[in-house]
Amino acid sequence: MSDKPKLPIVMIGGGGHASVLTEILLFQQREILAVISPENINQRSVFKGIRHLKKDDDVLAFDKDKVLLVNGIGMMPRSGLKRKINEHFLSLGYQFETVISDNAFVSPFSKIENGAQILPMSIIQTGVTVGSHSIINTGALIEHDCIIGAYNHIAPRATLCGQVETDIGAFIGAGATLIQSLSIGKHAVVGAGVCLKQSLKSNSIAYPTKVMTKKHS
Which CB contacts under 8 angstroms, 24+ apart, belong to 191-197? Predict the structure, then answer.
């Protein structure tokens, strides 16, 4: 394991999700140089003492080779904002840090790709792949051999049983349960509390009582 010092962080976003990530990083003794947010962040005590900048382009004041970015903007179903911001800064040569809470269980036989965010009390079992820039939120359970695509949001307390595979942009709502070996297509949405027993095509939405297919804009 390398003893090379970790680069300091610039946090994009100043809302609730960013505050959770900031707390994780502070407990890990990571240096956070700035929070980038157009909104007032003073009401969130976790940001106290951290420099506040208001424009996305303020990131450019930091050398791309001397910082890592963390995108603290939460993911809503079918919102492309997080991905748009990431791709903009990636195109400029910046890199995003992978954030893993010390209070999460992550199997050493899993694969966590760059920029993923693993929140407290979540469980990542053996053989799992978590795609780049995906969020595994508080208390989510990802069972063995699941493959989570890029830019997914697995919401709090969601359970994915073994060998579930999700494509890019999938959103699994809070408390949802997906039985084993299902396939979830691009930008598909599983509603909160749904117990899903069939695969979902791209752009489909699974509500508690039905599945609908909508055209993705």
Answer: 192/155
